[in-house]
Design brief:
alpha/beta, Hypothetical protein af1432, Rossmann fold, 2 domains, globular
Length: 383
């Protein structure tokens, strides 16, 4: 399925009706909520106390906001869950520097942690639908943007990038609840910044919908540059398409290739390891360099091909997409996912079984592809 802001039906998941659940029941249900108990915050900007107290106040404030009360049930669930999780990484990021308490980086780490929790804890019976989960985790990632966007090197790019992943009107509601769910001397200043964020996003045509570009290629080119013009229509001079797969082991990459592009040559890191007799846990440099050289041969010949590997982080995908683009290729990025329990079941049936602890470590760094990364981005989700 292509990435869209549309959500569709909300199947029965373990998050159904979460905002209607009493606080004590939530505290007992979610271990990650209990982990916030006693985690200190800067007393000047969080006079209410620890992270758990702040989270409770944010959730209570969210439910009092008219904007939230007017939302449908599904959106209420999404926003409330994001409020519960917005500081989920603070227990791991909080430290004292120069006699001040800081939790720098907690939003970005929070996205990764929230994804892991929602992916694994729903179980096989009540998984959180991927499209919904990704909206929640992106709200966690960007929850500080409305009060900090003007501090970014390029505020326009910052909000346009966020708009490709999350609804910014939802983000503004979460940020308002976050600002009001605390005791601090600069609360009115925070709210003023959020109002400015709303006006700024409206001016950039990205407040309730993602910013639209002239075409997919122009969007891709814009996000590859630091100071591009979002109105610019880039000339598409690409000569060949490369399909870049991403997904956990046993997510269905080989099956997807067989069903969609069996006629194309495939560069598979797994098969290269077998060919070169390199262990999956050994040094991978020679395997990767061999794979890249084969890719260059295809690119020079303008031969479409598939790159088949896990490619779980944006940094790794960016390197590959940069390589392919330098040779005049357009990149179709396909992310494949199956439920956690299904991944483990399929993995056990494979001849090259990946240890469960290795899969869990992969989930710890999983970044799901988004529309800022490639010419085309597609999700293929199996159940």
């Amino acid at each position: 399925m292509p990435i869209t802001h549309g959500i569709g039906a909300f199947p029965n998941s373990f998050l159904d009706g979460v905002w209607e659940t009493g606080w004590q029941e939530l505290y007992e249900r979610f271990h990650w909520l209990r982990a916030m108990d006693g985690v200190r915050q800067d007393s000047v900007f969080h006079g209410e106390g620890d992270v758990l107290t702040h989270t409770k106040m944010v959730c209570e404030m969210l439910m009092q906001l008219p904007e939230w009360q007017q939302m449908d049930e599904l959106t209420k669930n999404i926003l409330f869950t994001a409020a519960l999780l917005h500081d989920v990484a603070k227990p791991f990021c909080t430290k004292t520097e120069d006699n001040k308490i800081t939790s720098r980086g907690h939003a970005l780490k929070g996205e990764i942690l929230a994804r892991k929790l929602l992916y694994k804890e729903g179980g096989a019976e009540k998984p959180v639908p991927v499209a919904i989960r990704e909206k929640i985790v992106k709200l966690v990632r960007f929850h500080g943007l409305p009060v900090a966007f003007l501090e970014k090197e390029n505020p326009v790019r910052a909000v346009l990038e966020a708009s490709q992943m999350v609804r910014l009107d939802w983000l503004a509601v979460l940020a308002k609840a976050d600002a009001m769910g605390r005791y601090c001397p600069d609360q009115q200043d925070l709210l003023a910044k959020i109002n400015l964020f709303i006006e700024f996003c409206q001016e950039q045509d990205c407040y309730r919908e993602r910013r639209q570009f002239a075409d997919d290629y122009s969007r891709f080119i814009y996000f590859q540059k630091e100071n591009g013009d979002p109105a610019y229509q880039a000339y598409d001079a690409t000569k060949v398409e490369v399909i870049l797969l991403a997904g956990l082991p046993a997510a269905g990459k080989d099956t997807w290739i067989a069903n969609n592009c069996s006629h194309l040559p495939v560069i598979s890191l797994d098969k290269l390891r077998e060919e070169l007799k390199v262990s999956p846990v050994g040094e991978q440099g020679y395997v990767v360099q061999t794979a890249k050289e084969r890719a260059r041969q295809f690119l020079r010949a303008r031969q479409p091909f598939v790159w088949n590997a896990t490619n779980l982080t944006k940094k790794l995908r960016r390197q590959l997409i940069g390589l392919f683009s330098d040779y005049g290729a357009s990149v179709k990025l396909v992310y494949l996912e199956a439920p956690y329990e299904e991944i483990l079941k399929r993995n056990q049936a494979r001849s090259r079984c990946v240890p469960k602890n290795v899969i869990d470590r992969m989930i710890d760094k999983l970044e799901v592809p988004d529309l800022t990364e490639a010419y085309k981005v597609q999700w293929s989700i199996s159940r």
